[in-house]
Write a structure and sequence with these properties.
It is a multi-pass membrane protein. By secondary structure, the protein is of the alpha+beta class. It is built from 15 helices and 4 strands.
């Protein structure tokens, strides 16, 4: 009686001319086995299987999927998961090349597979882990690469990778909270605008035909909505193109203009409720990133230089760079933070205590945890606050149009009565 099981897959090498083949065969006990093997041709696959004591039955090139064959784009969340996987395996004593091989084979995203296999091949070719990461600056930023380099230099790469994994996970969770706070109201406003446009273009004209049969003057509010409907019906495509063009143009200009980015970030920090969330988020990212880099052994001035780009806000980026310049000439971090007049008193005091006690990284992590919790609480409170406001907003927009359409009918009923 034959049983079916999967053989361990052989990791694809990053060499040219290799193709992945799927195969089915039987071992010496008659047990059916199947798997995938990269090779230059089918004959080499069969030879390798026989060498392993497997009699090949079927060997064929692996079919490529019709859609998504290139794989999904690599997102920061994918790098966070990769960081946790490599950290866990190295903590367990698995060599880095073997760990990368296991992670690469188990990843379902083809692009992520290629990235991991490329890193593994570079390490097998004699590069260090940090050197291999420098070939992929989009996925692994300067902070990531510097932390790995510091861990390799100090001989504590597994510990540093564990710290990086925790940092990435916390950072992605924080980003998720911020996106949640921004996405909900933006989607509601977008839906309200779409519903209003549909009513004005398709529904209001139907009522207008009915109103013409009345032969009476329409109420001012109804006439205003009818006029708006006529304008939308005639020029909706101009409005649509202008709206899309404006959004695309603003985004393009925003990406190219540092002055605009700085202005937008400064304005966002002053918006009620949202501004407080963004402030707390920037402080949390500053504290956690500085704590991670400092604990990894990166010199403080260099760490501050790295942290400046990780705060997520231009105002805080400029402030951290001023702190870096002050620390470079001998000022304590807490005194430099006080001079930029941006950080709360509690953050400055916690930093001062950490510097005096020689436990700056520990105190920074406590600051980060506090402000991450503040962001969580603020987002939850914002959701509760926005729900009734959104209901009122939708009621005014949609309900106002409904009332405008029925006002003439109500007046007609009063006259007839």
């Amino acid at each position: 009686m034959s049983a079916s099981r999967s053989a361990a897959k052989t990791a694809p090498r990053a060499n040219d001319g290799l193709q992945t083949f799927t195969w089915v065969g039987k071992d010496k006990r008659g047990v059916v086995m199947k798997g995938e093997t990269p090779a230059k041709n089918i004959n080499l696959v069969k030879a390798e299987l026989r060498r392993q004591g497997i009699t090949p039955q079927t060997v064929k090139p692996k079919a490529k999927p019709l859609f998504g064959s290139a794989g999904k784009p690599i997102k920061p969340g994918d790098i966070a998961v990769f960081s946790r996987q490599i950290a866990t395996m190295m903590k367990s004593g698995v060599p880095i090349v073997a760990a990368l091989e296991i992670i690469g084979n188990g990843n379902k995203n083809i692009r992520m597979q290629k990235l991991i296999n490329a890193i593994r091949s570079d390490i097998q070719g004699g590069m260090s882990f940090s050197e291999a990461l420098t070939k992929h600056p989009v996925q692994f930023d300067e902070l990531y690469r510097n932390l790995v380099r510091a861990g390799e230099t100090a001989g504590v790469l597994d510990t540093v990778l564990d710290t990086i994994a925790t940092y990435k996970e916390n950072l992605e969770a924080l980003k998720g909270k911020i996106k949640k706070a921004m996405f909900y109201p933006a989607m509601v406003v977008a839906v309200a605008l779409i519903v209003s446009a549909v009513l004005l273009i398709f529904v209001v004209p139907q009522f207008e035909d009915v109103f013409k049969s009345f032969g009476a003057e329409l109420p001012a509010f109804t006439q205003m909505v009818v006029n708006l409907s006529r304008f939308m019906v005639s020029w909706w495509w101009v409005i649509f193109l202008a709206l899309v063009g404006s959004v695309v143009g603003l985004i393009a200009f925003y990406k190219r203009s540092e002055a605009l980015q700085h202005t937008v970030d400064r304005v966002v920090l002053k918006v009620p409720v949202i501004g407080q969330i963004m402030n707390n988020s920037a402080i949390a990212r500053f504290a956690r990133t500085l704590g991670v880099t400092f604990r990894a052994g990166v010199p403080l001035v260099e760490a501050l230089d790295i942290v400046a780009g990780a705060t997520g806000n231009r105002v805080y980026t400029d402030a951290v760079r001023r702190i870096r310049d002050d620390v470079a000439v001998g000022y304590p971090v807490n005194l430099s933070m006080k001079q930029v007049n941006l950080f709360p008193h509690m953050v400055i005091q916690m930093t001062a205590i950490g510097e005096e006690a020689g436990a700056l990284d520990t105190m920074l992590f406590k600051v980060a945890e506090f402000y991450e919790q503040e962001v969580n609480n603020a987002v939850d409170a914002l959701s509760s606050l926005l729900e009734p406001m959104i209901m009122v907003f939708l009621g005014v927009i949609v309900g106002g149009m409904v009332i405008a359409m029925y006002l003439p009918i109500f007046k007609l009923g009063a006259v007839v009565g």
